[in-house]
Specification:
By secondary structure, the chain is an alpha/beta fold. About 65% of the residues lie in helices and about 5% in strands. A hairpin with a 4-residue loop joins strand 6 (about 525-535) and strand 7. Helix 4 crosses helix 6 and helix 17 packs antiparallel against helix 18 (about 415-435).
């Protein structure tokens, strides 16, 4: 495709690619524990309570992240009319849109800084990367946050490079920068400003001056950012006495900076070890991309991107708490560096597919692809002792694409190598998300319980069924069963079941003896309605959940739905 056609059709091709990457599994994968379920449930409660200022998960204030993502999710759910449906896909749509915006802005930024080919391939590598695909499927903050980061950093890049070239700078980049900062703060607090500050600090160290920053128009832009953020903070302060910021800092931010918060502590180097998998498939030419960018660092565009990448990456490597998505704001830089090296290799201007740096990436690409294919084939067998058709077809397709990939490597056909790598992501990752994960009932015990409860409620004349849970408190259970699901102890649940026959108690196997003993002790009776067996991936162990009702209640439902939902069986509708 020549340059003229590429400029004409690039956005349409990238849009189609994003849909191919982000739609598979979006509507069929249940709510994921724990963060996604917490975000989605809190957004649902905003609509249920008609309170769009305070953030709650059941009765507990959720003062960890600002309100922006909850507003976006609540708006989509209200627009689609799906509040009562207990489905998670509407809550994910802001993440899909955020990811697509980040990809499109990366395409635009690449055109500004480099050339149409680098911009096009960079946007595709970003869109297809495993971490980006995963975050686009999650009803959390990170995909939308990335859009605000690319917007603000893109505006900074335009100002910096035009200033370095002695070209005129309009007021628009500065306005975009401050608007993105305000929205970014509403989405995830200080992350977007932090990345910009780190970038500007690195450029100041590098250049020994920041004269270009005057084009940010602080006197106009800063009030704009404050105007975006301040109204909600003022409204929040009136309701909770200004405690939101204090709780967010002391309960969320500081613990992550001081130690491995919530068992997510890892040593520095964690992200370097993961990048070949999380930036797959673009990892196959990442090392040459980084090397060429460093070699040509006198170029203002490359210098800016390095100033974006290096301090941000180091900050998150040094922070004790580590989760894979923390470095997602640097992935547009990795994608553009990789695409620039590929473009130069294709044009014979530097870099080869046979260099040692490229060979490391090519081998890692192949190994990661084989791991994904093996996972598609083996997970159903390990968890449910069965073989899925997708578990055969996905590895077969992956093997064919891997063969094509290496054939193009031997031919030194850069475009063929890149296309086959991106297609491998769409086919293998998309296939896993669409056909493997939704079919694994074992890893979705909350979904299976939701189906059992829905069947019971459909048969019952009484609509006031209370649901209590003992020993299983995953947020997805609350999302699938409703806001008023009670999480309790065996004693509390037993006493409530004796008081009210319209109660269904979900008890984990380990707590079942204590529950039954206390219920019998106080003169109550129980009946086992169903057993749901699955795998609790948040704790890495199998789980057995017993559903009990009163011995004199739900008799018709118990007989009609007296079956075991096992890891290898789907719940009949």
């Amino acid at each position: 495709m020549n340059t003229e056609n590429l400029q004409r059709y690039a956005y349409g091709i990238v849009l189609a690619a994003c849909l191919a990457f982000y739609l598979p599994g979006l509507f069929s994968i249940p709510a994921v524990d724990r963060d996604e379920s917490r975000y989605a449930q809190a957004s649902r409660q905003m609509l249920e309570d008609r309170d769009f200022v305070h953030i709650r998960f059941q009765d507990e204030p959720r003062n960890k992240k600002p309100v922006g993502i909850y507003w976006l999710q609540a708006a989509v759910v209200a627009a689609t009319g799906t509040l009562a449906d207990k489905v998670v896909w509407p809550f994910r749509l802001p993440s899909v849109v955020g990811a697509m915006c980040a990809v499109f802005m990366t395409l635009g930024l690449g055109r500004r800084l480099f050339d149409p080919y680098t911009a096009f391939w960079g946007s595709l590598l970003l869109a297809s990367s495993v971490l980006m695909v995963v975050e686009a499927h999650m009803a959390t903050t990170d995909a939308v946050l990335l859009a605000t980061v690319v917007a603000s950093q893109g505006a900074l890049a335009v100002i910096y490079t035009r200033h370095q070239a002695g070209r005129s700078i309009t007021w628009r980049p500065g306005l975009l920068f401050w608007a993105a900062q305000g929205i970014g703060i509403l989405i995830k607090g200080p992350v977007t400003p932090l990345i910009s500050i780190l970038t500007m600090g690195m450029l100041w160290i590098w250049d020994r001056r920041l004269t270009w920053a005057r084009h940010l128009n602080v006197l106009v832009g800063l009030p704009l950012a404050i105007a975006i953020v301040l109204p909600w903070f003022l409204a929040m302060g009136q309701g909770v006495g200004g405690s939101f910021i204090g709780q967010a800092v002391t309960e969320d931010l500081l613990p992550k900076l001081i130690s491995g918060h919530e068992s997510h502590g890892f040593v520095p180097g964690y992200y370097l070890l993961l990048v070949m998998a999380t930036f797959w498939p673009g990892c196959f030419y990442l090392l040459p991309g980084l090397w060429l960018a460093w070699k040509d660092r006198r170029d203002p565009a490359l210098r800016f991107l390095l100033a974006w990448l290096v301090p941000t990456w180091l900050f998150f490597e040094l922070m004790p708490t580590k989760l894979p998505h923390y470095v997602l704001p640097t992935y547009p830089v990795l994608a553009l560096f990789t695409a620039r090296a590929l473009t130069q290799a294709a044009q014979g201007r530097g870099g080869r597919l046979t260099g040692w740096q490229a060979r490391v990436g090519l081998v890692m690409f192949s190994l990661v692809l084989l791991v994904f294919c093996a996972g598609a084939a083996l997970l159903p067998y390990v968890l449910e002792a069965r073989v899925l058709p997708a578990g055969i077809l996905i590895p077969a397709a992956g093997a064919a694409l891997l063969a094509a990939f290496w054939r193009y490597v031997r031919q030194a056909y850069v475009k063929g190598v890149t296309v086959s790598a991106v297609l491998a992501s769409a086919v293998v990752i998309g296939g896993i998300l669409q056909f493997v994960f939704p079919a694994l009932g074992a890893i979705w015990p909350s979904r299976e319980i939701g189906r059992v409860v829905a069947a019971i409620e459909q048969d019952r004349p009484c609509a006031d069924l209370e649901i209590w849970a003992v020993g299983f408190d995953e947020p997805s259970l609350v999302f699938h069963l409703g806001t008023h699901t009670r999480i309790s102890s065996p004693v509390q649940a037993a006493e409530r079941l004796k008081e009210n026959p319209d109660v269904l108690v979900i008890v984990r196997d380990q707590q079942a003896p204590a529950f039954k003993d206390h219920l019998v002790k106080i003169g109550g009776t129980y009946r086992l309605v169903d057993v749901v067996r699955g795998y609790d991936y948040t704790k890495g162990r199998r789980v057995t959940l017993n559903l009990f009702c009163s011995g004199t209640a739900l008799v018709r439902s118990a007989s009609a739905h007296s079956f075991t939902v096992d890891a290898s069986h789907r719940n009949p509708d």
